[in-house]
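Colleagues,

Please find the record for the two-part complex below.
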Amino acid sequence: MKKYNHKAIEKKWQKHWEENRIFSAKDFSDKPKYYCLIEFPYPSGDGLHVGHPRSYTALDIIARKKRMEGYNVLYPIGFDAFGLPTENYAIKKKIHPKIITERNIATFTRQLKELGFSFDWERMVITADPSYYKWTQWIFLKLFEKGLAYKDNIPINWCLSCKIGLANEEVVNGRCERCGGPVEKRNKEQWMLKITAYAQRLIDDLNGVEYLDKIMKQQINWIGRSDGADIKFSIQGGKEALKVFTTRPDTLFGATYMVLAPEHALVEKITTKEHKEAVSQYVEAAKKKSDLERSEISREKTGVFTGAYALNPANGKPIPIWVADYVLISYGTGAIMAVPGHDQRDWDFARTFNLPVVEVIQGGDISREAYEGEGILINSGFLNGKNVEEAIAAMSNWLKEKELGGPAVKYKLRDWVFSRQRYWGEPIPIVICRSCGFVPVPEKDLPVLLPDVERYEPSDAGESPLAAIKDWVKTPCPKCGGPAERETDTMPNWAGSSWYFLRYTDPHNDKAFADSDKLKYWMPIDLYNGGMEHTTLHLLYSRFWNKFLYDCGFVPFSEPYARRTAHGMILGEGGEKMSKSRGNVVNPDDVIERYGADVFRCYEMFIGPFDQTANWDTKGIEGIHRFLLRVWRLIVDERSGGLNDKMAEGVPEKGLLRNLHQTIKIVGEHINQMRFNTAISQMMILVNELYKKDRIPVEIVKVFVLLLSPFAPHIAEELWEKLGEKESVLRQPWPLCHMEYLAAETMTIVVQINGKVRANIDCSVDISREDLIKMVLEQERVKKYTEGKKIHKIVIVPKKLVSIVVS
RNA sequence: GCCGGGGUGGCGGAAUUGGUAGACGCAAGGGACUUAAAAUCCCUCGGAGGCGUGCCUCUGUGCGGGUUCGAGUCCCGCCCCCGGCACCA
């Protein structure tokens, strides 16, 4: 081969790797293990997006380097194959989603293989495969067994266009995370997973793992712990107690009214006759509002009086109970004590309805706005004179003593709505029996297979298409044998991905979801990279499932991921999201066709800092293309196809060795730090340097090829072979930096005079301070600024600079 | 509003235990090769000014202050952009 022919080279080496099973991970090796993981793709009909290879290449580079460093590397791949887009496409084209999924997986597989990723394809998992979802169902049953999966009738977020219920995490700004359509509240019987039982541990255990700081903070914020107190209010003339949660029990003396969420169970019970009409109208109106509407008109406070009064336990005063939709049913107890003097929302409400405002903390002007800051308590009985912190503690204790409540913790995290009313998902393995209730499908009968259906269309009524298959729905109760029905809802697409990383350790096991020794060997995952958009979805869900399985004794570590990083998105050329409608989509197939996988990979790494958003640049990829062409010509004579005439054996000159070892150091470090763009820059510097030489030492070039190999593995293998080597670059040890080559004999010292750079001088590295000062002061350039002036001070920074202060 | 992350040439971006700002790449301009073009190779490339045409001076990292011999980097006060959350009591 004479000229660089990416097509031939890439095909050749991909075949070589596959035939030699060079990337199959070995269970139980003597080598240290390294498990690195990318988020497996959802095989959409559009094929691979140029964003996918950014993450895959980055971890491929790390995986390849780790192999060369002597690790037993597991870098697996699979497909998150259940989900709505496939189902919607199936409905439109009248093709079975299974067929579409197979087709899409075939396309993705071809594309991923063409990019030369070092995935262990033998461990591929597909979540829609019965041999896989059998275990997803099995885990669900374990959750059910432990009371962490339960069915409840609660108002949930209903996406009008997807026609499914959404988890709290799937609602973004009142809209559906997937389709962007409006979301409304609907009361529906739903399967729920009790992720809230793990709220505290999901926060605490972040201490033991290395996550990007922003990921950790985002998760903590999402779980949203708040510390405060529960307080029981009695209702005047009633037996019922009204419980509220507050983070400010210190302000209890300032509570001048109460508010219930419209959905609160007590609303109906306590409303007096005269107010029934107005209250029920208000409650009905609130029900009809979507989340979006509720938050959009957020500023204007609305509400109605129930006619009932609660007694403030601090001072025994009766205070009116109102209903207002600024109080949410889903947080705390769905009811609040309102302290208008010290909470802006309550202040706004009190102002609107002329309710009294009492000052209990000094420091603000409550006639103008609520004062939420620090201060000394007043008008507050036994709390008077205390500061906020002291008063919170004193009040909490007082409440506990009087059995009126006491310290309490609440979380923003909600339980996970786990039912979807659609076809293409894992059937929930539960049978509903009139006499036995919810009965789990026995383990031996798993998996509950998805039946074939004629029509996949979901209904507006929120029934799964499975409900229409009467034969399938009707089934004897596993417990009593009587007539019963199957659950027809399916699992959300986050189910399969909540444990796939465990399956990779033992993907073909049909006795267990994974062998415990294999789990012990491979887990935890050493590095998991993915998108920021999954921080409060998949990442949180999978941590929850792993913790649950840990508690059951099925997995060896409570946290699945030792380290979590995130990559930035790749946008279109104009800085906008790539989309068909904008016409700015870059197809990976075209890039591979024109430039090849190596150029593609290197470009994605060079495009910008890995964790930041980057815009695709057609011109930019040309630069990388030129770089690899330059690398080729550095080594290969294009006329003969042999080695470049300049290639020579023998000891390289010191300057080159220094540059090489600098490159070894930087490339190695920057790969570890995921600063791939600067790693490539450094390799360019070395190549530029080599181009200036008349004699190119083979020794240098060989090491360079090894450094390049994780980035551009195909061209590296080819050049390695041309350099006369027989074994794959993957079998070579990763080059080591020898510090002795880094040291130079001379160094450049910068001379600053009054803070300005005035000269550079070259001197020996072991020059003494005295000689250095003498040498500096003798410089013409220095004399020019020091002559006739008084030298006040000379600062010397070893090996860097001399700073002279004159007047 | 709250929590993150940022603002550096025409562009993507380098440089953080404070020490020559602009590495590397793109674009642009000039030159070499060629009948010509492409490709390739070499040179120039933040701005302003000066002459002895090779250098010199001033200025410059969102804005305003400060610390320091020295600030893109540290401190104080602002402005703007991006991401996440948002009536969470």
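The mean pLDDT of chain A is 92.

Comments are welcome before we finalize the supplementary table.
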